[in-house]
Amino acid sequence: VNQKDEYGFTPLHLAALDGLSHCVETLIYHGADVTTKSKKGNSALNVITRKTPASMAMITQKLDAAITLHHMHDSTNREVELELDFRNILQHCHPREISYLNTFVDEGQKEILLHPLCSAFLYIKWEKIRKYYIARLVFCFMCVLFLTLFVLTALAHNCYNNDMIDLTKNETELCQKQSILGELLRKNPFVIGMQWWFLAAITIFEIFRKVYGIAGYSTVKQYLA
Fold first, then answer.
1. Residue 213 — φ and ψ, nearest 5°?
2. Of 8, 18, 90, 180, which shows the fewest CB atoms inside 10 Å?
3. Which of 150, 168, 167, 149 is nearest to 158 (CA)?
4. In whole angstroms, what is the distance from residue 135 CA to residue 64 CA?
5. Buried b vs exposed e over 24-60: b needs ≥16 C-beta within 10 Å?
6. Cβ atoms 185, 191 nearer than 8 A
7. What is the pTM of this model?
């Protein structure tokens, strides 16, 4: 059901373009990928929302069907087991686990994220990546902090060396202002060298991280998009 023609259209694209709601719903029921895109970048979901919006209910029904309750066989035990099947979300998620849900966001269908299955998936996903997200925030904070200190240290050294000729008007005004930080930076010339090496290490690490990130995508164009 996800076979593409020479233009990148799937049966779901064609059925939606012709306004065949019943065919669209049948294809979705049998596993058609609503997030697949044509060669021009038009997703099947985009065509469905424009041509057969009523068919969106089938997507919700499939998500509903992925949530099941199992009652205990013991009549005295009132506990139930809730089973969540994430295959509907994960089977069409290349190259990232949230690619499927991202398509709904891109097409203005953010309300799909409120579905219990999607909410549970995002919660579990966040629990797994939260520590990496926080670590990345700390890393970015350190990068900005040391870059700022490097600029201030360079300016402090220029002021200390009385290199006023090469300074701009704004820099000259800054040099005329006395501050505790400026005095500290002037008295510790080794600081600027330490900051430079730290910034160089951060830059090299970031380059390797970006290059490694490309490996998760089929093409460089897809990564940049």
1. -65, -30
2. 180
3. 167
4. 35
5. bbbbbeeebbbbbbbeeebbbbbbbbebbeebbebbe
6. yes
7. 0.69
- Distance between CA atoms of 7 and 76, rounded to whole angstroms? 60
Contacts of 192 (CB under 8 A, 6+ apart): 150, 153, 154, 157, 185
pLDDT tens-digit profile of 147-165? Answer: 887 877 777 666 655 544 5
The sign of the torsion formed by the CA atoms of 71, 72, 77, 79 equals negative
Measured distance CA(219)–CA(221) in Å, rounded: 5
Task: Indicate the helix (H) or strand (E) that contains 208.
Answer: helix 190-214
Across the range 129-138, mean pLDDT stands at 92
Residue type, position 100, single letter: Y
Contacts (Cβ under 8 Å, ≥6 apart) of 113? 101, 104, 105, 119, 122
Q: Judge residue 73's burial from the number of C-beta atoms within 10 Å of its C-beta, 0-12 exposed, 13-18 middle, 19 or more buried.
A: exposed
Length of the chain, in residues:
225
C-beta atoms surrounding 217 within 10 Å:
15
